[in-house]
């Protein structure tokens, strides 16, 4: 029987990580969730072999505690705006987000890097239209990615549930999540962010406490066959 390797990974890797592991010949037991929440679990004593975070900060905290290897870049993602066609009709991403008619969702800052990246977009919006930052921060519905947020049901991102239950009109989040949801829901479309609002999301990997299984798994995930899966799911191979 093939040994399963325990991995803690950012929720946005939910679809691609099993494909990467399978192509590199590894069996994994994956725990997906907000990177900040998973980092706290490791700091409190849980020990996966490998931790994949959607930003550097959480990996660096563990490294500074002496709990893991130095962080290395694992992949990259980007942000976009996606939602109901009626909420995207203005043709301008910022104006669609600012519209009082649209309920705008994001992930939860601090707990989940996806929320941090979304709020960084709001910071950029302030340069374009003064007052946008605070307005968008106050209207954003941070309904996923927090310690107490509902967990994903089955294979779907929890963002899928927000649209299925009509809790948001728009969501500012990862392009890979948008691609998955738009592929499953006929009434969800994707709008690119202009360069002036664009934020790049880098993911990092660390091996926990020099775990040999983690070292070998990370090598496997860096192999060409596994990297091809990243591109197929909308991530950037490195």
From TrEMBL:
Q: Read off the Gene3D superfamilies from this record.
A: Periplasmic binding protein-like II
**Domain of life, per lineage:** Bacteria
**What Pfam families does this protein's entry cite?**
SBP_bac_11
Gene Ontology BP term (one): molybdate ion transport
**What GO MF terms are annotated?**
molybdate ion binding
The residues forming a coiled coil are none
Which SUPFAM superfamilies did the record assign?
Periplasmic binding protein-like II
Do you know which InterPro entries this protein is assigned to?
ModA/WtpA
What is the protein name given in its UniProt record? Molybdate transport system substrate-binding protein
